[in-house]
Specification:
The chain is an alpha+beta fold. It folds into two domains: about 1-80, CRISPR-associated endonuclease Cas1, N-terminal domain (Ribosomal Protein L15, Chain: K, domain 2); about 100-340, Up-down Bundle (Four Helix Bundle (Hemerythrin (Met), subunit A)), CATH 1.20.120. About 45% of the residues lie in helices and about 20% in strands. The protein contains ten helices and 14 strands. The protein has helices at about 65-70, 100-105, 110-135, 145-165, 175-195, 215-235, 255-260, 265-275, 295-310, 325-340, and strands at about 1-5, 10, 15-20, 25-30, 35-40, 40-45, 50-55, 60, 75-80, 85-90, 285-290, 290-295, 315, 320-325. The chain has a six-stranded mixed sheet. A four-stranded mixed sheet has the order 6-5-4-8. It has a two-stranded antiparallel sheet with strand order 11-12. A hairpin with a 2-residue loop joins strand 4 (about 25-30) and strand 5. Helix 6 (about 215-235) runs antiparallel to helix 8 and helix 6 crosses helix 10 (about 325-340). It is globular, with a radius of gyration of 21 Å. It holds the Pfam family Cas_Cas1. InterPro entries: Cas1, CRISPR-assoc_Cas1, CRISPR-assoc_Cas1_C, CRISPR-assoc_Cas1_N. Homodimer, forms a heterotetramer with a Cas2 homodimer.
Length: about 350
């Protein structure tokens, strides 16, 4: 990873770059086939061919020519809020949902496939939570070990309830039931996560906009980055990220990305838990505001770097070693095929 005075550049395979704009006032323009970054007297040029993604995380400016260059080179250009959630993104017109998938996605909230997918994703989320808690408990030699085991059993009970939900005429009839099971399991899970942290960083449940503590502050930003990645994977696979089934956004609109992200949240959870447990957190990672905290520049830099390392790590998937980010993309393609073939 190369860090200049103003911005962070993450180098992946073959010096492919993820460019993170995290200093206010940065201006991005086009210089031939290169991106030109300027902030005060500092000027930097980066070949577009080497850039995989541009994340703009703070108040900055970008020229229309630079946007066009990103689109032409199929570079993912994402604008993020302070809490890490994407405001918007630019992508090539060759991506995007095809009409057949969109039409069938609209029917998912009313057919058996939609219920099946939701149950699979929520069940996987709960399985991930219990597996992670079991792993944590192995390293505890005090009363927390038994407490974690007790709560794992309770989460397993909620998982069984989700599995027992049967297909009805409309997702609206079972939405509150499924979300009730999911919500209770998550409360138990985060209570155990908190108790497993160093005392300084323990927290009282989930909090958002703003976060009330350091852990939730990191978690919210991490989920925002993950949301952006899930959205991009949906677009590439031809899925419409805004036609959802179970979960709704702040405007009470169903959002497919909110549904699908559930099974992948564990990647962010593990990354952030590790950072807090291995003394990689500093007080200057956070900015205190009225009512809570936001992630500061150095905190964003640290989290994004750890997140990228995890996404580029490999896992066994259908008998092959695959990078996590490629597993997510592959599963989005599989979902699109299931919807098309229904």
């Amino acid at each position: 990873m190369c860090v200049d005075r103003y911005n962070v550049i993450d180098f992946n395979r073959g010096d492919i770059i993820k460019l993170i704009i995290n200093t206010p006032g940065t201006y991005i323009s086009k210089s031939g086939t290169r991106f030109k970054l300027k902030n005060g007297e500092n000027v930097q040029e980066i070949p577009a061919k080497k850039v995989e993604q541009i994340l703009i995380t703070c108040p900055s400016s970008i020229s229309t020519e630079a946007i066009s260059l990103a689109v032409e080179e199929n570079i993912d250009l994402v604008l993020l809020k302070m809490n890490g959630k994407p405001v918007g993104r630019f992508w090539h017109s060759k991506h995007g949902s095809i009409s057949t998938i969109r039409k069938k996605q609209l029917l998912l909230s009313e057919n058996e496939l939609g219920i099946t997918l939701v149950k699979e994703w929520i069940s996987k989320k709960m399985e991930n939570q219990t597996d992670f808690l079991k792993m944590i408990s192995m390293n505890r030699r005090d009363e927390r070990r038994d407490l974690i085991k007790e709560n794992v059993v309770k989460i397993d009970d909620e998982l069984k309830k989700v599995d027992s939900v049967s297909f009805t005429q409309n997702i609206d009839e079972i939405r509150n039931t499924i979300q009730g099971y999911e919500g209770y399991a998550s409360r138990l899970y985060f209570e155990m996560i908190s108790k497993s942290l160093p005392e300084k960083y323990q927290f009282n449940g989930r909090s958002r906009n703003p976060a009330k503590d350091y852990f939730n502050c990191m978690l919210n930003y991490g989920y925002g980055i993950l949301y952006s990645q899930i959205e991009r994977s949906c677009i590439i696979a031809g899925l419409d990220p805004y036609i959802g089934i179970l979960h709704v956004d702040n405007y009470n609109r169903k959002a497919f990305t909110f549904d699908l992200i559930e099974k992948y949240r564990i990647y962010v959870d593990k990354t952030i838990f590790k950072m807090f447990s291995t003394k990689k957190i500093r007080d200057d990672f956070f900015e205190e505001i009225e009512g809570g905290f936001y992630l500061a520049k150095d905190g964003k830099q640290a989290l994004i770097s750890e997140y990228n390392l995890l996404m580029e790590s490999t896992e066994k998937y259908h008998g092959k070693n695959m990078e996590v980010q490629n597993i997510i993309q592959s599963e989005c393609h599989n979902i699109a095929n299931r919807i098309l073939n229904w």
